[in-house]
Amino acid sequence: MTELQKRLKSIHFGALIAPVIALGKKLGLFDALSALGSEEAPTDARAVAQQADCKERYVKEWLSALACARLIEITPDERFWMSEEAKHEFDGLNNFEVARMLFVPASVKVFDDLVDAFKVDGRLGLDYSQFADFYNEQDVQTRAKHEKHLVKDYFPLIGMNSVLSTGGRVLDVGCGTGFHSMKIATAFPHCSVDGVDISDAAVSIARTNADEEKIDNIIFRIADAGELPADWTNTFDFVTIFDACHDQLRPDMCLAEIYRVLKPGGVFAMLEMRGTSSVFDDCHNLPHAAHVYASSLFHCLPVGSNRGDALCMGAMWGEQRARTLIEQAGFNKEHVQVLHPAFFPINDVYLCRK
């Protein structure tokens, strides 16, 4: 077998096992197996199924797939258990790669529409409304990636802890289901936080989440980032956007609007995927590039291409393109820094002052 054939086989194997793992996370099967089985007293499919409120035959097939993938353990009499390492990796949000696997089933739902978008005479792209499940899974991935570091490391890095502690108005653009907005609102209760997103579904979830958490210094609005309310000019002390500029139809208009609504002297922080704006350099220097280009193909590029005047950036637009648009929006080149935080190893932070 050639190296290419081995690589193709490995990709095929992973493509099939990833949604099996996603099923386990979605249905609580890993939690059930972890609670019931051990090396000293392994468990069977029936017990796991009862614990997770699932059908035994389906659970048996799920357990079999993971055992043959060497991800869980099996005995000669077909009983199952998880090693301590496996329990840790599959528990909660401990492993970012496990959280990412939830994207696989959410992405392939748009496969046929994406085929049409590829064609010269096909649709321009895909609509945000086609990704309701995507936002739920994105929320899981975001929590896995940012929960530990957002308040403890990210805000000190961008120098906003002392500013936010004393109050001020904050805008979270492309807020999705509200995770970052709510973290800011709870960590800095003297602030007033606005979260905006173009997706009705995402904003609905965000509002529900805020109500459940009883957070009263936050408002979520449905809004196009390229056309924010006219009366917001020079309003916000701090504007942030997390991995949500590249998939705008017009990221240039989004950045121009952010510049407009930011107070003079205010700070804008944009977290984006780390990229160079060169596919060749990405390919040879960034281990995450293949994954992000592939993810972009199923979501970021098509939603960012779904209009005749769209810029069609994609997730890996990279530092050169991002800098160009930031400066065209009005930010002075001397007031733009690009940070490479070790705690967010596949992201860059664009820190801009008006």
Number of domains: 2
Mean of residue pLDDT?
A: 93
Reported by name, the CATH topology of the largest domain is: Rossmann fold
Oligomeric description of these chains: single chain
Main pleated sheet: 7 strands, mixed
Identify the overall geometry.
globular
Order of helices and strands: HHHHEEHHHHHHHEHEHEEHEHHHHEE
If you compute it from the alpha carbons, what radius of gyration comes out, rounded to the nearest whole angstrom? 22 Å
**Strand residue content:** 5-15%
Q: How many beta-strand runs?
A: 9
Tell me the CATH architecture of the largest domain: 3-Layer(aba) Sandwich
Computed structural class? alpha/beta
The proportion of residues forming helix, as a percent range, comes to: 40-55%
Report on the architecture of this protein:
Helices cover 49% and strands 15% of the residues. The protein has 354 residues and is of the alpha/beta class. The chain folds into two domains: 3-91, Winged helix-like DNA-binding domain superfamily/Winged helix DNA-binding domain (Arc Repressor Mutant, subunit A, Orthogonal Bundle), CATH 1.10.10.10; 113-353, Vaccinia Virus protein VP39 (Rossmann fold, 3-Layer(aba) Sandwich). Strands 5-4-3-6-7-9-8 form a seven-stranded mixed β-sheet, with helices on both faces. Helix 14 links the parallel strand 6 and strand 7. Helix 2 (29-36) crosses helix 3, helix 3 (45-52) packs across helix 4 (56-68) and helix 14 (251-261) packs across helix 18 (318-329). It is globular. The mean pLDDT is 93. It holds the Pfam family WHD_Rv2258c.
Please outline the helices and strands.
Elements: H1 3-27, H2 29-36, H3 45-52, H4 56-68, E1 73-74, E2 80-81, H5 84-90, H6 96-100, H7 103-108, H8 111-118, H9 132-146, H10 150-157, H11 161-165, E3 168-173, H12 179-187, E4 191-197, H13 200-213, E5 218-222, E6 236-242, H14 251-261, E7 262-273, H15 279-285, H16 289-298, H17 300-303, H18 318-329, E8 336-339, E9 347-353
Parallel strand pairs: 3-4, 3-6, 4-5, 6-7
Antiparallel strand pairs: 1-2, 7-9, 8-9
